[in-house]
Amino acid sequence: MSTFRYQAVAGDGSSVTGVIDADDRRSALQLLGKKGLYPSRLEAQVPSGVITPTKPPPTTGTALTGKKGQISLGGSPSASTQASPVKSTGGFRWGTGIKTREITAFSRQMAALVGASIPIPQALEGLGEEEVNPALREVVHQLSTAVRTGSSFSAALAMHPRIFGKLYVSMVRVGEEAGALPSVIHDLADLLEHEDEVRSEVVSAVAYPLFVLGFGMVTVAVLLVVVLPKLFTMLKEMTAVLPLPTRLLLWLSEFLGNYGWLVLLALGAIFAGYRAFARTPGGALQVDGWKLRVPMVGSMLRAAALSRFSRTLGILVKSGVSLLPALKIVEGSMGNLILSGQIAQVAESTRGGASLAAPLREMGLFPRSVVQMIAVGEETGKLDEMLLKVAAIEERRMRARTKTIISLLAPFLILVVGALVGFMVIALLLPIFKMSQTIH
After folding, report:
1. Which end of the chain is more exposed for a tag (fewer CB within 10 A), N or C?
2. How confident is the model at residue 87, as a pLDDT?
3. Bridge partners of 5?
């Protein structure tokens, strides 16, 4: 039997502290849940043998905030073992209908409600009732049910790993352990909103070139399959020998007219094979390596990944996560297996107490000026602030490279489409010019 000291929120919204005896952390959470108490902090203490809930003195801050400290995630019980299973609805990218920006909005609303000292189950119930998306509404109701039956908020989130990733769950768990859940969820919402903003900028930037390419390919296909066959019939009747460009265009038109379905089937098979290859461990590693080696695009992807690394690590350190577990969390959020492996090597180098700047300098992940900023942040005890500044630098670099690529890509695609259409026009006009010369 162990004794745990807790700080919790009662059903009426009041804050309660006390101690409780239980076999383990999970049992303590379940006992508190049965009493209608929803803990924001639960710490093991020397056994005392009694439950002694007391009302804390009035405070001017929120009931759920507390002093942040360095929390090592590896020493605390796994959040996933603290609650009974609840069926997950799956991921938000495929099959659930839950979009990333909806998770961001949920996080922002949850930060506001928890910051106003509203108990987590009541906050979840309110958000669930107001949620328009049925899939997300069901997930929020499951979260509320799990918390009311004794699970911590982080354990409930961990039951939906494809919706709330490792980073999300870990930050919420740190907020619970440190008694700073409102500020941590606020930082998490800021991070998600920033990633949504960057993602929207990239999508908006590539939308025009993709539209030009798609429209051009559709136009060329319609001309080859629908329009040109009729013109070629007329040209054959007018002249027996067609110029070489015209014959090439005629062959291409006939091939697409007869075997266009086979071309589409082959393209679909190639795409499916590529996806299957990219999902294998070795294939995913090779694909990520190819991406980094593409001229200009590779440097942009590297800058985006390093920006994500710096911002995420900075927010984790700011929230109270110690460096090694924070690096392990960030390792899985890089979006590129090659870079994730390099971050894993950095984490191994810091395991023995080494600084973060030294392995980063050896790996060559960042420019020397950026590594120097991180070193200064470690020396002055302001690593989180310096990492966030590094993230801003890498984001500016990524955005500048994105603008450069897009500014070159759009004219290039226009030239490609124009060249195709121009070749088709020349191939059609050559027989007419030949006939006019024959007449004269």
Report:
1. C
2. 36
3. 19, 43
- pLDDT by residue (tens digit) across 405-435? 878 887 888 888 888 888 888 888 887 777 7
CA distance 151 to 169: 13
**8 phi, psi to nearest 5 deg:** -140, 170
Cα–Cα nearest to 220, from 189, 258, 190, 260: 260
The region that residue 320 occupies, defined by phi over 0 for left and psi between -120 and 50 for alpha, beta otherwise, is left
- Residue tagged 């066959």 (tokens): 229
**pLDDT at residue 272 in the model:** 93
Specify if 362 maps to a domain: no
Tell whether 189 and 88 lie within a shared domain.
yes
What's the angle, vertex CA 437, arms to CA 433 and CA 438, rounded to 5?
115
Position 102 in a domain: yes
State which of 194, 215, 246 marks the end of a domain: 194
* Cα–Cα distance, 337 to 315 (Å, whole number): 22
Task: Tell me how far apart the alpha carbons of residues 197 and 193 are, in angstroms, rounded to a whole number.
Answer: 6
| Model confidence pLDDT, tens digit, residues 200-217 | 877 887 788 788 888 888
Q: Is residue 184 part of a domain?
A: yes
Half-sphere exposure of 412 (CA within 13 A, CB side): 7
Q: Report how far apart, in Å, the C-alpha atoms of 147 and of each of 109, 121, 153, 435 are.
A: 18, 6, 6, 84
- pLDDT (average), residues 149-167: 85
Do 133 and 85 fall within a single domain? Answer: yes
Kindly tell me if the per-residue pLDDT of 183 is higher than 50: yes
State the pLDDT at residue 92.
34
CATH number where 137 lies: 1.20.81.30
DSSP, collapsed to helix, strand or coil, labels residue 91 as coil
Provide the β-strand partners of residue 21. 3
Let me know whether 19 and 85 are in one domain. Answer: no
Cβ(315)–Cβ(390) below 8 Å? no
287-291, 326-330, 342-346: which has the minimum mean pLDDT? Answer: 326-330
**What is the residue range of 9's domain?**
2-59
Neighbours of 286 (CB within 10 A): 15
User: Considering the domain boundaries, does residue 342 fall inside one?
Assistant: no
Measured CA angle at 350 (ends 349, 356), to 5 deg: 105
SS3 229: helix
CB 323 within 8 A of CB 356: yes
Distances (CA, A) of 63 to 8, 231, 284, 317, 332: 9, 79, 46, 23, 33
Q: How many domains does the chain have?
A: 2
Q: DSSP string spanning 373-392? A: HHHHHHHHT-HHHHHHHHHH
